[in-house]
DNA sequence: GAGATAGTCAATGGTTCTTGACCAATAAAG
DNA sequence: CTTTATTGGTCAAGAACCATTGACTATCTC
């Protein structure tokens, strides 16, 4: 059974890769998180696009659509339906730009902030379930290492 | 500036969450990996769907389409175009099922196995770049913890 | 004024997935 | 050994989502 051995070989290689294991973990966690958020009322249907956009609304003065598009790496036309949905829900407000009459500013509202908080809280709840099985010490250690890893990955491009 | 404080608060909450940091890391790593795989010739266009399907072809005897669909949580119709593409490329072979004349078995070929190996190798290369910045000891530790985390997450549902 | 920039509108394309109708083979039951 | 229900798979049509290009308006900058 040479073929079976080759398969086992690849699986060993996968298990040996930090990245492979990391990607799997990230997907599973993401799935759990999305399910937890959408299982509750209040947010009609949280989709990946929303979660991807929200972090770029850090500026309390608002962010221009073009800037959002550039941050996300897509065209401004692609961003429009997303912010339209967010605005309809009330997570963002679209204001005219005081400095430029052409431009508009997408501003995170209190409700949008609450949505971010809610989503993160759900993740923290899963954290706790994980910690109960993984151990408090290990979880803390993992969190520390992961935080450093995030910095490394950001710098890596 | 109460609003800015509230935002900082959420960001602190996010940074404190293992899951949040993990998801970000996973996305970044995945992006790097996909880019690395597609930058080389040999595999015309590796998409997420392919990467998602391949792991379920572990059985050397092949797997039924219905079974694949159930594993992926979609309909069998959704699976069909994916395996058609994989078959066209040569990563899988579609054989009649010896036990059931209705059924077909999707079998991973040598080429498909090589593709998995190639993808994982690319991840391992990124691993090394990460390890150079994170430190060998830390990387090893992180890998160990992450492997345990994966088991925990799988069991969590 | 000339040219760049912010944003919108319209049309369109690709990917993924769905429902519904169908065929062929199997399994269960009389 | 038929009848009936179930199962594996395909075909066809289409919906949802995400993104695109192209054309246009309004404004800003020089």
Write down the CATH topology of chain A. Arc Repressor Mutant, subunit A
How many separate structural domains of chain A? 1
Report the principal-axis shape of chain A.
elongated
CATH superfamily of chain A: Winged helix-like DNA-binding domain superfamily/Winged helix DNA-binding domain
Q: What integer value in Å does the Rg of chain A equal?
A: 20 Å
Main sheet properties of chain A = 3 strands, antiparallel
First-residue to last-residue Cα separation of chain A:
41 Å
What is the CATH first-level class name of chain A?
Mainly Alpha
Question: How much helicity do the residues of chain A have?
Answer: over 70%
- What is the H/E string of chain A? HHHEHHEEHH
Please work out how many helical segments of chain A DSSP would assign: 7
Tell me which protein chains meet in the greatest interface and how many residues each side has.
A-B, 62 and 62 residues
Query: What is the oligomeric state here?
Result: homodimer
Instruction: Give me the secondary-structure category of chain A.
Output: mainly alpha
Indicate the proportion of strand residues of chain A.
5-15%
User: Any guess at the CATH architecture of chain A?
Assistant: Orthogonal Bundle
Whole-number mean pLDDT of chain A = 93
